[in-house]
Each structure stands twice: as C-alpha cells, then as structure tokens.
Amino acid sequence: MSAPVAQAQSEKLSPIDQQFLQDAGQAGATELAASKLALTHASDRQVREFAQRMIVDHTKLARNLDVLAKRHGITAPAAADSSLIGSLQNLQGAEFDKAYIEKVAMDGHQKAVALFRKESESGNDTALKAAAAKALPVISHHYEMAQQLAKAKAAS
C-alpha cells in the first residue's frame, strides 16, 4: 500500500473512532502487561486464574482491534499505562493481589465497559462499532468476574 492511500484511510476515521482505538489499545496492553505480572507476583490462586483468563481473552481482543486499526493505516502498537504497571511491579503476594484487583480488574474493566459501550453506541466507523458491540459482553463479564473476585478477597 502506498503512503498516500494509508494516509487517506486514516483520515477517514473520525476523532471519536481514533480515540477509541487509542484508548482501547492502551487498556488492552495494560491489562495484558498487568496480568502477565500477576502470574508471577500474585499469591492468590483465584487472582492468577483470573489473570490467565484475561491474557487469553485480551490477546484475542487486541488482535481483532489491530486488524481494524491497520485497515485505517494505524500500525503503531498501543503502549501499556507505564505508571500503573510500574506501581504493580514492586508489589508481591497479598499486596499485589489487592492492587491488581482494585486497579486492573475492577477500575480497568469499569472504564473499558464504558469505553466500548460509548463506541458501540456513538462510533462512526461501522466495523469499529460492530467490534465494540461484539466485545462488550466479554468485557462486561470480565467486570462481573472482577467484582466477584473482589468480594471473595474482601471476605477472606
């Protein structure tokens, strides 16, 4: 593909859709990086199992969004939220579990649900709207799982 064609395609994406791709990409990259950390830093089996599930699901989701982004000439991979990942890197065991559940599982999925809902309702690109609508039940389920995990850990 010649550069002018890629340029023209990326210009067709509305600012709302571009922002969605950027925010969704960062949220996914952050989820993956934090969940990979959880596999070695978490002490709780349920937290590690949740993290493993997030790695599988978010890898699939990221692949789907990357395909759509590339169609619009957006090829730069999204970077994870380095301040969040940095804050988790130095934690171990129960301290890590608590921070991961709060910042990644709960806050991250709450924001992602809102982000994907907004795109599915008011995005301009039909393929992105459809992808957001298709991903929404999965992300909503992750948020429900996160709430159950938080409840279970608060009780123990």
Short description:
Helices cover 85% and strands 0% of the residues. It is mostly helical and 156 residues long. The model is unreliable at 1-10 (pLDDT under 50).
Model description:
The protein is mainly α and 156 residues long. The chain has a single domain (3-155), classed as Ferritin (Up-down Bundle). The protein has helices at 3-12, 15-41, 45-71, 82-89, 93-122, 126-155. Helix 2 (15-41) packs parallel to helix 4 (82-89). The longest helix has 30 residues, at 93-122. 34% of the residues are buried.
Amino-to-carboxy terminus distance: 56 Å
- Proportion of residues in extended strands: under 5%
Corresponding CATH architecture: Up-down Bundle
Quaternary arrangement of the chains shown? Answer: single chain
Poorly predicted runs are: 1-10
Helicity, as a percent range: over 70%
Provide the CATH topology: Ferritin
Q: What count of structural domains? A: 1
Shape: elongated
Q: Major beta sheet, specifics?
A: none
CATH class membership: Mainly Alpha
Please state the CA-atom Rg, rounded to the nearest Å: 17 Å
> What's the total number of strands?
0
Report the CATH superfamily: Ferritin, core subunit, four-helix bundle
Number of helices: 6
Mean pLDDT: 91
Order of helices and strands: HHHHHH
Pairing-aware structural class of the strands and helices? mainly alpha
Protein name: DUF4142 domain-containing protein
Domain DUF4142: 17-149
Pfam families: DUF4142
